[in-house]
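Example (one chain per record):
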Amino acid sequence: MPARRSDLLRMRRLAQALDGDREVGPADVTRQMLAVQAQDFGAACWALALRTVAPSRSAVLADLDAGRIVRSWPMRGTLHFVAPEDLRWMLGVTTARMVAGLTRRHRDLELEPPDFVRAQDLLTAALSGGRSLGRADVMALWEAAGIATGGQRGYHLLYFLAQTGVICWGPTHRTQQALVLLDEWAPLSASRTLEPDEAIAEYLRRYLAGHGPATLKDFVWWTKGTVAQARTAVAVLGDELTTLEVDGTEYLVTARLADTATATPETRAESAAVHLLPGFDEYLLGYQNRDPVIDPADFERVVPGKNGIFSPVVIARGRVAGTWRRDGEAIEARPFLPLTAAQERGVERAADRYRRYAD
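Predicted structure:
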């Protein structure tokens, strides 16, 4: 059905728990969104917290320490927060393609199958019994056993063992997380088991529930899957999905989200709401085409030199309206779109939420 861009953006804010009913806790946010990009640990913690009723850094860390959220590389070679029961079936969809794509890189690093086996054996022995190790300790363990970790060898060993379901990032460790055995931290008995077509359909269902509306290309890019897989998912889901046409582009959306948006018109508070999102937030990064959210002419203001490092952003009426940073106690917003007086006040309210979270 035809729709305006404002309708599209409001549905996305509802799906991502930025507007409407926020989630109760960080683990609830993770399940709602299926996966939250988390290569920057501090930024990802704020990404979860800001979508909850009462943002709290300690609540995020508590869910990590309790194993209610895990961190791994479920897709795109990028770290994400996911729910423990979802990680294995997600890896079942993505691992084969991701590992196959690294064959040449492993050859360049002189990593052979026996290296991965030996690294796994050493790490499994060190972690068994509920133990955990920080990244530096794991590298030291391998180096002491004669496995060189320099030149990204250590990273690729960790990545392969995570991709193949041996390890994941678990409890907090100093300012980051420690590595644990996936079978101990998130037992197989508590994981969902899905057949291949069920799994790719669940991937699309959950992606759209937490990110929609989105295009089929957005989904293929997000998962680094195939168009054939995506089309299978659409066929399996059938009437669970509907479409929106915005500016000549067709977007997929769950029927449930479309009905929710129709039944709950935008409130005055939502129209004036401003959000201070962290760098690498799913609201901007969760799609191949970001034009609905940010003017292409402003993109380099968020990613200077297109260097892959995304700055924290100010969101007003669903659009990127500027960047922001914390300088001591001060929150400095740098808008590059004009803000109304109500939105200026919204910046201050959003800054207060972040201060309460961070302090």
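Caption: The mean pLDDT is 95.
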